[in-house]
Design brief:
Layout lengths: L30 H4 L6 E3 L2 E3 L12 H4 L2 E3 L2 E2 L11 E7 L15 E6 L7 E9 L4 E12 L2 E13 L5 E16 L2 E16 L2 E5 L20 E17 L2 E14 L1 E9 L4 E10 L2 E17 L2 E18 L8 E11 L17 E18 L3 E17 L15 E19 L2 E12 L18 E15 L2 E17 L5 E21 L2 E16 L17 E10 L6 E10 L2 E2 L7 E2 L2 E14 L2 E10 L7 E5 L2 E4 L4 E8 L2
Parallel strand pairs: 3-6, 12-15
Antiparallel strand pairs: 1-2, 1-5, 3-4, 5-6, 7-8, 7-36, 8-9, 9-10, 10-11, 11-13, 12-35, 13-14, 14-17, 15-16, 16-19, 17-18, 18-20, 20-21, 21-22, 22-23, 23-24, 24-25, 25-26, 26-27, 27-28, 28-29, 29-32, 30-31, 32-33, 33-36, 34-35
């Protein structure tokens, strides 16, 4: 597929809108200069750091249910667009100190789009060297005294690094109302619709080896294996400060629904030959109601500040899915189709008929109480406890099962747990403070991946625990160094010998993390972060297969370095560079294969100028400058390749 020009739409920013001085909305987006640490920062379209809302200390906070929106509990099923979310904070280490109800593996706290008493309209045109092109706008609109809204929409023609693509549109609105001093209500609605989304090929080896290089940016086919689906979210957040009391609450709805899903499986043999199959399964639906009520009471006592917080949060999640152990899958072709590993294949789409879907309903209710003490000159302590009740009902229909005798009766389980937490921080010497914390959790484990024989099955909730400790050193007004150690334990999920995804043992991650934010010279900002880990597995006693000491896909090192430099002789131009290193990792459950480490280099340029009186920015960035080819293990012996060299650009103005 020929690549389409990435910069062809740059001049389209000459929009005939009235220019007016306004608060910057996108032209000042810069994650490097905004970062308070290197653990994860998102500002508009820009993001940096060693962690994100899909990866914290080797685990996925979204899968575990550790997502918050405006600090409140949010069960995420299909969210969120950048027209809804302004940024996120990764709460680990010092950023989690004083947080009333932390969670193992960290929390990703999302911030909704803001608006105020100034009108700002920000159109964006973007594209990349894979051929993608998009047009978006965001606006902050004052409606009346104390009432405003943020609104945004986008249309996208996507071409992926793996050669596939999709078309997409989205829309979000975030109204804000301040009816009285100290009182605010925030609503939101978000919808994203995707058409013709292709599934990346997954390369499954038949032995202890890594697949050979394949041509990148070529969709392996067939063209009919495309999905249509949408995400929809809405909710209401309220907060009020009444003297020493603060009341906060939120109620949220999150939905993901589609038609058909596809798993594009490419089996690779030692001689380089390959065979193809497409697994087709019903997309199903996942939908949830979730929310939280919080009441906090602050008590001032001289140098001591006390904060007592009570919380009640809950969720109700209904998930329907196919591709269960009862064969809710159509495989095309019925027998693997031999083809060269880099070839594009095509074969007729079969008539897909499925057995009734499995329905899984989860109810969870959690009551929490937290006490926080801050003593000037001595430090702070937070002690909390949560009592959670987790109910799961699974209705598995037997209609269409190949063996009716194998049907499993409907399952019902109830789990109740106390989840304690403790954190403390104290100054040691001038500019240096120490911190430590301990927390237990009961977390979701997500669903089995598409390449597993039990694809899409909901996995059980599991217990986890984490402790960490470290030092935070304020080197000067613009420089901070954080050095910490953590230890996390959770069940180990991966593929067994039959290709089913489940618990194989216990997984422990111990590691050192470092963050340095500094300004070593005028107009130069540096952000360095690293996670240097020792992940290990203890196999369950009932597991007969060989299970290695290293968990699959867990890198021993992850490090990032970002530099941002404003040219002194041309202050409208800012240059930036990035280096992201991902260390080696086990690629099979028995650790017979190891995927090597790799370095990803990037360069960028930001040019600030004026459209009339309005600020405008042209942003150009390049990734994987060396065009390194690397394989990433999704599961045991199952790989995808990383993106090659690419260039992306966007142009925006705050009108």
């Amino acid at each position: 597929m020929a690549k389409r020009g990435a910069l062809r739409a740059g001049v389209a920013m000459a929009l005939a809108l009235s220019a007016r001085p306004a608060l910057a909305q996108h032209t000042d987006d810069n994650a490097v200069t905004s970062a308070e640490d290197a653990f994860g920062t998102v500002v508009g379209r820009e993001s940096i750091g060693v962690y994100n809302d899909q990866f914290i200390r080797g685990f996925n906070p979204g899968t575990a249910g550790n997502i918050r929106i405006e600090g409140l509990y949010f069960d995420i099923e299909g969210c969120c667009t950048n027209h809804l979310i302004d940024g996120e904070t990764i709460r680990v280490g010092p950023a989690a100190q004083g947080y009333a109800f932390p969670a193992p593996t960290g929390i990703a706290d999302l911030t909704l789009k803001s608006s105020g008493d100034k009108l700002v309209v920000s159109p964006i045109i973007a594209g990349d060297s894979f051929g993608s092109i998009s047009a978006e706008f965001d606006a902050a609109v004052p409606l009346a005294p104390g009432l405003s809204t943020a609104i945004g929409a986008g249309a996208y023609h996507n071409y992926y690094a793996n050669g596939g693509g999709s078309k997409r549109w989205n829309f979000a609105v975030v109204p804000r109302w301040k009816p009285a001093k100290g009182v605010e209500l925030i609503g939101f609605f978000n919808r994203e619709q995707t058409f013709g989304d292709t599934q990346q090929g997954t390369y499954e080896t038949t032995g202890d080896f890594v697949p050979p290089h394949v041509p990148r940016a070529i969709y392996p086919g067939p063209l009919w294996a495309r999905s249509n689906y949408y995400n929809e979210d809405f909710g209401l957040v309220g907060r009020a400060t009444l003297g020493e009391w603060t009341l906060r609450g939120g109620l949220f709805r999150s939905l993901n629904r589609g038609d058909l899903g596809f798993s594009n499986n490419i089996t690779v043999n030692p001689d380089g030959s390959s065979a193809r199959q497409i697994a087709i399964y019903p997309w199903g639906e996942s939908a949830s109601w979730s929310g939280e009520l919080r009441a906090s009471r602050r008590i001032a006592e001289g140098r001591r500040q006390h904060l007592i917080t009570a919380s009640l949060r809950g969720r109700d999640v209904l998930t329907t899915y196919g591709n269960s152990a009862y064969g809710n899958t159509v495989v095309a072709p019925d027998n693997p189709l031999a083809a060269p590993i880099g070839a594009v294949v095509s074969f007729p789409e079969p008539a897909a008929q499925f057995a009734p879907l499995t329905a899984n309903r989860t109810h969870q209710l959690t009551l929490g109480l937290s006490y926080h003490l801050k003593w000037a000159g001595l430090g702070e302590v937070t002690i909390g406890a949560q009592r959670t009740r987790y109910i799961k009902d699974v209705a598995t229909p037997c209609t269409g099962a190949p063996d009716p005798a194998a049907c499993v009766a409907d399952a019902h389980s109830i789990t109740s747990r106390w989840l304690p937490s403790f954190s403390a921080a104290a100054p040691l010497v001038k500019g240096v403070s120490a911190y430590a914390s301990y927390v237990k959790g009961l977390e979701d484990s997500g669903t089995a991946p598409s390449y597993a024989t039990n694809a899409n099955q909901l996995l059980p909730a599991t217990r986890s625990r984490q402790w960490d400790a470290g030092l935070r050193w304020a080197l000067d007004k613009k420089s901070t160094l954080i050095l910490g150690y953590y230890d996390i334990s959770k069940p180990y999920f991966n593929l067994d010998q039959a290709g089913a995804y489940g618990i194989l043992g216990q997984e422990t991650h111990s590691g050192i993390e470092v963050s340095l934010t500094a300004s070593p010279a005028k107009d130069l900002t540096l952000v360095f972060g690293g996670n240097f880990e020792r992940p290990r597995v203890t196999a369950a006693p009932n597991i007969s297969q060989a299970v290695g000491r290293r968990p699959v896909g867990q890198n021993l090192q992850v490090a990032s370095l970002n530099l941002n430099y404003k040219l002194p002789f041309a202050p409208a131009i800012t240059l930036d560079s990035s280096a992201f290193y991902i260390g080696k990792a086990a690629a099979t459950v028995d650790n017979a294969v190891t995927q090597p480490g790799r370095m990803i280099l990037g360069l960028g340029l930001r040019y600030n100028f004026k459209l009339g009186k309005a600020p405008a920015t042209l942003r150009v960035s390049a990734k994987n400058l060396a065009d390194n080819f690397t394989w990433t293990a999704l599961g045991s012996g199952t790989y995808v390749y990383d993106a090659g060299r690419s260039v992306s650009a966007y142009i925006t103005a705050d009108l």
